[in-house]
């Protein structure tokens, strides 16, 4: 059975102070505190700007050896209605900075496409051709047209994981398209980034995640419902549930 890592999308949120982070804990100490509770984090910041080399070195130094990062690809690359002419340049700059991570600490790269980008298999394959080798990739689609068998086959052929998520108004399949990992994102129980998940919902997902872990060596799970610290509460609850035998989770679902 493979491992299941549970974390959150980012760790620097103002309203986590006094909810997850103890009163008086200085923000520079937040990452170390976070890493004492969770063994992975998804870096949302890399969507909007490239961190400096010194920031990356600090991030790697502040966490245990077993800690793993997922980095999100820049919006300059993923959120264009047409393939940017300078795509090669953007990719070069991004992965030059990504290479500054301690290799063992960088688990995979998340490619998140926007809701207005509908299915285009030719464009997707061309995009994959541009991605440098040596990294694991996960793709999150936010337009339902992508959830078609040819796309599933393309992802499997490229050994790229589908991001299984609950973006509002969407029905996302639970395809396992990579032989190395499964990847799940929770965006909010009552709205985007808002609301805690019920214990019943988390138990059901714990059972499903355990099943995923029988198919692939690693499963990564991130909570993106950051408002009022719900993400850390749900991630901690799910981690606890994953310690129970799958039979017990099924009985309590």
Characterization of the model:
- The protein has 253 residues and is α/β, with parallel strands linked by helices.
- The chain contains nine helices and eight strands.
- It has a single domain, classed as Alpha-Beta Barrel (TIM Barrel), CATH 3.20.20.410.
- Helix content is 33%, strand content 17%.
- The chain has an eight-stranded parallel β-barrel with strand order 1-2-3-4-5-6-7-8.
- Helix 2 links the parallel strand 2 (40-43) and strand 3.
- The longest helix has 14 residues, at 199-212.
- The model has no long low-confidence stretch (mean pLDDT 94).
Give the rounded overall mean pLDDT: 94
Number of helical stretches of at least 4 residues: 9
What is the count of β-strands?
8
pLDDT below 50 for ≥5 consecutive residues: which ranges?
none
Note the topology.
Elements (H helix, E strand, L loop, with lengths): L2 E7 L20 H6 L4 E4 L9 H9 L6 E5 L2 H4 L8 H12 L7 E7 L8 H10 L6 E4 L8 H10 L2 E5 L15 E6 L12 H14 L5 E6 L6 H12 L4 H7 L1
Parallel strand pairs: 1-2, 1-8, 2-3, 3-4, 4-5, 5-6, 6-7, 7-8
What distinguishing features does this structure have?
253 residues, alpha/beta, TIM Barrel, 8 strands, 33% helix, 17% strand, globular
Structure at a glance:
This protein has 253 residues and is an alpha/beta fold.
């Amino acid at each position: 059975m493979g491992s299941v890592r549970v974390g959150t999308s980012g760790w620097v949120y103002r309203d986590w102070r006094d909810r997850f982070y103890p009163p008086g804990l200085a923000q520079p100490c937040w990452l170390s505190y976070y890493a004492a509770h969770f063994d992975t984090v998804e870096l949302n910041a890399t969507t909007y700007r490239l961190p400096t080399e010194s920031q990356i070195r600090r991030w790697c130094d502040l966490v245990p050896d077993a800690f793993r990062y997922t980095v999100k690809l820049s919006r300059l690359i993923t959120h264009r209605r047409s393939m940017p002419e300078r795509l090669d340049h953007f990719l070069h700059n991004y992965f030059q900075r990504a290479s500054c991570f301690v290799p063992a600490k960088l688990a995979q790269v998340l490619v998140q496409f926007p809701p207005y980008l509908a299915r285009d298999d030719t464009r997707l394959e061309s995009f994959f051709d541009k991605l440098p080798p040596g990294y694991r990739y996960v793709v999150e689609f936010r337009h339902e047209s992508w959830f078609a068998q040819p796309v599933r086959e393309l992802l499997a052929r490229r050994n790229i994981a589908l991001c299984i998520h609950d973006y509002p108004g969407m029905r996302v399949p639970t395809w396992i398209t990579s032989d190395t990992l499964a990847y799940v994102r929770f965006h909010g129980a009552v709205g985007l980034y808002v609301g805690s998940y019920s214990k019943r919902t988390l138990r059901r997902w714990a059972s499903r995640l355990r099943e995923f872990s029988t198919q692939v060596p690693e499963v990564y799970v991130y909570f993106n419902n950051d408002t009022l610290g719900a993400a850390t509460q749900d991630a901690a609850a799910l981690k606890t549930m994953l310690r129970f035998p799958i039979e017990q989770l099924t009985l309590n679902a």
